[in-house]
Amino acid sequence: MSEQSQVQIAILKNDPEHLILDIVGQSAPIVNALRRVLIADVPTVAVETVLIQNNTSVIPDEILAHRLGLIPLNIDPSLLQYKKPEDQRTWENTVVFKLKVQCTAKKNANVGLDDKFKYNNSQVLSSDFVWVPEGGQQELFKDKAPAPVIPDILIAKLGPKQEIDIELHAIKGCGKTHAKWSPVCTSTYRLLPEIILKRPITGIAARYLQQTCPLNVFDIEEIKGKYQPDDVDDEEDEEQEDQQQKRVMEMDKDTKKHNVGTQCVVKRPRNCSMCRECIRGAWQEKIKDPQKREKVENAVELTRAKDYYIFSVESTGVLTSSTLMTNAFDILIEKLEKIKQLLIQHK
Ligand code: SF4
């Protein structure tokens, strides 16, 4: 089997907003390249130009323009052309929105009420964006009218008679130019944690270890038919035993041996945050018998699987997370192909 064919991918979660993949057998530079392409090279559409006719709100023009740029828009970037700074604005490279909101007092509203009830339009929300179709855009966007992805993003609060009157021009771009075009909230990977129990941890020690982990990585399992000498703990510990632990103390009438034992097992390693609580030894100090304590000292080892990546992509909602991933693969392949062609030309 070639090295390439050993790469495995498993999809653990595939929501429109969140994709989690297990990538096994790949090298870190390739996985990191994919992450960086997702952040910086997958194009989206965002507000680039803000023409302010009137802004009497308390938010300065520059801050308002910055906030408007960061609002994710549901526009498919493949439907628009790139617009360079020297290019003219056309319906093929720019989507225009209007934002015109004025705050007015409601008639007969109680004085003590919240602003929302006393005034009309006391909050300017992303749902106040009004798309202004130009040229052939009605046909181009017939499946989905351009609008903010989330309708209730708060842009500004207005007092009575304050007004915002703005025209917005949205264009296609990439995250490497400005973060507002980045299609992901986060794109991360981490190596799968490996928690190795170098010796069996049984009885009350197993329970102490399980309880010390804040992320529920360990479970306690029964080991039937085995004599577990470590399960016999001193009297004080025995009093703390829960119902499950009491079963450990039951003796088989014929063999005079414990017929049920318990031991700690690593059950959910991907939960592990590498907090190191399990190797710090606080749980071992709870064991009163020094001999038993010695047996479990340094029994836990923390490491990471060498080529097992947990890859996570959270979309801003502009495109589904799985579409972002496939776009990222296409862009990465295209980049590599360009480099290959350049090398061939210079041979
Ligand atoms: S490092 Fe922390 S989270 Fe991971 S297994 Fe140990 S205690 Fe649990």
TrEMBL record:
<keyword id="KW-0539">Nucleus</keyword>
<keyword id="KW-0804">Transcription</keyword>
<keyword id="KW-0240">DNA-directed RNA polymerase</keyword>
<dbReference type="GO" id="GO:0003899">
    <property type="term" value="F:DNA-directed RNA polymerase activity"/>
</dbReference>
<dbReference type="GO" id="GO:0006351">
    <property type="term" value="P:DNA-templated transcription"/>
</dbReference>
<feature type="compositionally biased region" description="Acidic residues">
    <location>
        <begin position="230"/>
        <end position="242"/>
    </location>
</feature>
<dbReference type="InterPro" id="IPR022842">
    <property type="entry name" value="RNAP_Rpo3/Rpb3/RPAC1"/>
</dbReference>
<dbReference type="GO" id="GO:0005666">
    <property type="term" value="C:RNA polymerase III complex"/>
</dbReference>
<dbReference type="GO" id="GO:0003677">
    <property type="term" value="F:DNA binding"/>
</dbReference>
<comment type="similarity">
    <text>Belongs to the archaeal Rpo3/eukaryotic RPB3 RNA polymerase subunit family.</text>
</comment>
<feature type="region of interest" description="Disordered">
    <location>
        <begin position="228"/>
        <end position="254"/>
    </location>
</feature>
<dbReference type="Pfam" id="PF01193">
    <property type="entry name" value="RNA_pol_L"/>
</dbReference>
<feature type="domain" description="DNA-directed RNA polymerase RpoA/D/Rpb3-type">
    <location>
        <begin position="18"/>
        <end position="342"/>
    </location>
</feature>
<dbReference type="InterPro" id="IPR033901">
    <property type="entry name" value="RNAPI/III_AC40"/>
</dbReference>
<dbReference type="InterPro" id="IPR001514">
    <property type="entry name" value="DNA-dir_RNA_pol_30-40kDasu_CS"/>
</dbReference>
<dbReference type="InterPro" id="IPR050518">
    <property type="entry name" value="Rpo3/RPB3_RNA_Pol_subunit"/>
</dbReference>
<feature type="compositionally biased region" description="Basic and acidic residues">
    <location>
        <begin position="243"/>
        <end position="254"/>
    </location>
</feature>
<dbReference type="GO" id="GO:0046983">
    <property type="term" value="F:protein dimerization activity"/>
</dbReference>
<protein>
    <recommendedName>
        <fullName>DNA-directed RNA polymerases I and III subunit RPAC1</fullName>
    </recommendedName>
</protein>
<dbReference type="InterPro" id="IPR011262">
    <property type="entry name" value="DNA-dir_RNA_pol_insert"/>
</dbReference>
<dbReference type="InterPro" id="IPR036643">
    <property type="entry name" value="RNApol_insert_sf"/>
</dbReference>
<dbReference type="InterPro" id="IPR036603">
    <property type="entry name" value="RBP11-like"/>
</dbReference>
<dbReference type="InterPro" id="IPR011263">
    <property type="entry name" value="DNA-dir_RNA_pol_RpoA/D/Rpb3"/>
</dbReference>
<dbReference type="GO" id="GO:0005736">
    <property type="term" value="C:RNA polymerase I complex"/>
</dbReference>
<dbReference type="Pfam" id="PF01000">
    <property type="entry name" value="RNA_pol_A_bac"/>
</dbReference>
